Amino acid sequence: MTATAVQIVRLADSLPDDFEALRHEASAESYRFIEGLREEWLAGHYGGRDERFVTFAAFQEGELAGIGALTPDPYDPAPDLLRVRHVYVRPLHRGAGIGRVLAAALIQQGLDLAPRLSLRAADPRATAFWEANGFTPDTSGTRRSHLLTR
After folding, report:
1. Which residues make Cβ contacts (< 8 Å) with residue 56, sequence separation at least 6?
2. Exposed (0-12), middle (13-18) or buried (19+): which is 50, by Cβ within 10 Å?
3. What local confidence, expressed as pLDDT, does residue 71 receive?
4. Strand (E) positions, 90-128?
5. What's the alpha-carbon Rg for the chain, to the nearest Å?
6. What's the pLDDT at 2?
7. What structural domains and CATH numbers belong to the chain?
8. Which of 17, 40, 51, 69 is placed for a possible disulfide with 86 were both Cys, Cβ 3.0 to 4.6 Å?
């Protein structure tokens, strides 16, 4: 599989049909943040009322391969800051460039809306991934690990 076959879709009305399978895969890997995305979606945070709440799904050959979101940073209310959150690529789709394409879409959309983006990398692989995508470590004592500035 190649990254050229990746389609990024901004979600507006509902989570993708295969979201429950993705959620179970994330849970099996002890990634609980996908449950947070589900809860926020069901609470109505996404879907158009506030343009700062954005969810992108990545599809490869029609199959849901990954997901990610942007929101106001829940731990830092600075008006010039958005947070990259809930980013997950399903195990069978890793290594095909889907994460890079999804990250690029989130970063582009995020920097169109705010001059700074934050995130919390969950582990050393995530740290390396986000640093390769332009984020720098942040040790300011916030609940974030990295920042990217326009």
Report:
1. 8, 9, 10, 11, 67, 68, 69, 102, 105, 106, 109
2. exposed
3. 96
4. 116-119
5. 14
6. 45
7. 3-149 (3.40.630.30)
8. 69
